[in-house]
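To the wet lab folks,

You asked to see what we're planning to order before we commit. Fair enough. Below is the target structure as tokens, and below that is the sequence we designed to fit it. If anything looks off to you, flag it before the synthesis order goes out.
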């Protein structure tokens, strides 16, 4: 699997005329594995790691990203996004209030998830600006999203879904962990810090936030639906909890509009 993704990334960059890549490095498992794949495919001199912390980013996330970049020997920069996010809020405050008055809605009826989504959208813009602005470097942004989360819609359109090509778009969440272990075994050392492998997954978009899934259940469940076309009844008879089956099917259907706009990815299974 590792070799197939590396080959796909290297081949795509060569044919599309790009030389370097920018990877958003959050200190999480997905971005860590993506950065390692990028180094293997393109060489460490062609990989740029970009850390983009907000006020919700934990200290360990920032240090884990920096440690991985040091272990890989790649160029690494940090761009704080809090001022950008605060500017969004200031700029939108008056127009949003006018819209609420126009349509008779109240501020307390707003979707609080919008505050979370501004953050990955700011990060996506920063990565794309780096790629766009430094034109002579021929940079293509490498997307870090995995198959399970893209299927469930647990990602932000025009935010962490931004990029030119996806490394892990056809890799389930559980397989991402296996890839991380393989990368460390292959290197004979802890390239991806141990804390990255052990920490509880979190997008860190608000206080005390963690991923709302048991990936040991949901990751293979998504694969059964996508790759094997299992019906709800099939899955329940296979032993999956009915509530998890219903929730997963609902998320899959509701997220179709996102997947239609998702970054293309390296295909390694019968159905990406």
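Sequence we intend to order:
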């Amino acid at each position: 699997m590792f070799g197939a993704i590396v080959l796909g990334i290297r081949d795509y960059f060569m044919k599309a005329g790009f030389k370097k890549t920018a990877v958003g490095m959050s200190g999480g498992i997905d971005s860590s594995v993506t950065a390692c794949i990028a180094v293997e495919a393109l060489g460490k001199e062609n990989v740029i790691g970009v850390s983009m912390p907000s006020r919700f980013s934990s200290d360990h996330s920032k240090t884990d990203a920096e440690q991985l970049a040091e272990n890989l020997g790649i160029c690494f920069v940090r761009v704080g996004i809090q001022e950008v996010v605060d500017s969004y809020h200031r700029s939108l405050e008056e127009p949003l209030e006018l819209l609420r008055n126009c349509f008779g809605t109240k501020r307390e009826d707003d979707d609080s998830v919008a505050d979370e989504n501004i953050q990955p959208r700011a990060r996506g813009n920063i990565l794309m600006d780096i790629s766009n602005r430094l034109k002579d470097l021929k940079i293509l942004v490498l997307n870090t999203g995995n198959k399970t989360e893209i299927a469930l819609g647990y990602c932000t359109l025009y935010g962490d879904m931004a990029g030119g090509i996806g490394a892990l778009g056809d890799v389930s969440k559980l397989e991402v962990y296996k890839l991380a272990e393989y990368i460390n075994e292959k290197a004979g050392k802890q390239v991806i810090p141990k804390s990255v492998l052990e920490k509880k997954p979190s997008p860190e978009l608000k206080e005390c936030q963690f991923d709302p899934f048991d990936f040991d259940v949901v990751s293979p469940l998504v694969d059964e639906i996508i790759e094997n076309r299992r019906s709800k009844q099939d899955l329940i008879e296979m032993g999956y909890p009915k509530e998890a089956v219903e929730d997963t099917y609902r998320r899959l259907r509701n997220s179709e509009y996102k997947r239609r706009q998702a970054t293309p990815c390296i295909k390694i299974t019968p159905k990406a």
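Structural context that might help your review: The first strand starts at residue 20 and ends at 24. The CA atoms of residues 30 and 144 lie 6 Å apart.

Thanks,
Computational group
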